[in-house]
């Protein structure tokens, strides 16, 4: 097993980028990255090697992020969901398209807020952490097939609502 210092050096940037994509605030992402590694350090003895180290760290980071939202009485409206919007909306070119994009972003936030936690977790881990379905399955303790089904159902929900509301 690598020393924890080597683990920190190797995975710091990926964990930071994952958390930055969630919160869109460099200082907050830095703080949450430090908290993620602190929690990883104190619970490293429980890491059983059933998944990749980054998958395990991303799972801890996700919990740190949701703990931050809860502690600060925030919801997913405060989360940066730009990546989700980019998945379902073409790039902005003019001011009208920019406003449409903002409307789509607001709708996506409302949809994600309203879907069950298991869908939200899979969407965040797949899009923000860029985890594979097998890694998501390990983190959430579900089968890889379930992770795929949940992701595609959540994606379908998003697309259907967006098509209905915005005629995409």
Automatic annotation (TrEMBL):
One of its GO terms (biological process) is DNA-templated transcription initiation. Gene3D superfamilies: 1.10.1740.10, Winged helix-like DNA-binding domain superfamily/Winged helix DNA-binding domain. The keyword Magnesium does not apply. The keyword Cell membrane does not apply. Residues 107-158 form the RNA polymerase sigma factor 70 region 4 type domain. Keywords: Sigma factor, Transcription, Transcription regulation. Residues 7-73 form the RNA polymerase sigma-70 region domain. One of its GO terms (molecular function) is DNA binding. Belongs to the sigma-70 factor family. ECF subfamily. This is RNA polymerase sigma factor SigM. It comes from Anaerotignum propionicum DSM 1682. The lineage of its organism: Bacteria, Bacillati, Bacillota, Clostridia, Lachnospirales.
């Amino acid at each position: 097993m690598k020393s924890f210092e080597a683990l920190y050096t190797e995975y710091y940037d990926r964990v930071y980028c994952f958390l930055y994509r969630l919160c869109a605030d460099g200082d907050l992402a830095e703080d949450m990255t430090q908290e993620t590694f602190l929690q990883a350090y104190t619970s490293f003895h429980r890491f059983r090697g059933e998944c990749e180290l980054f998958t395990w760290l991303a799972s801890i980071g996700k919990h740190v992020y949701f703990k931050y939202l809860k502690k600060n009485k925030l919801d997913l409206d405060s989360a940066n969901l730009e990546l989700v919007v980019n998945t379902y909306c073409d790039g902005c070119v003019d001011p009208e398209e920019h406003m449409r994009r903002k409307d789509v972003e607001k709708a996506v936030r409302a949809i994600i807020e309203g879907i069950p936690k298991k869908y939200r977790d899979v969407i965040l881990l797949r899009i923000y952490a860029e985890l594979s379905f097998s890694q998501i399955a390990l983190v959430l303790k579900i089968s890889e097939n379930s992770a795929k089904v949940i992701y595609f159902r959540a994606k379908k929900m998003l697309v259907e609502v967006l098509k209905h509301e915005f005629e995409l």
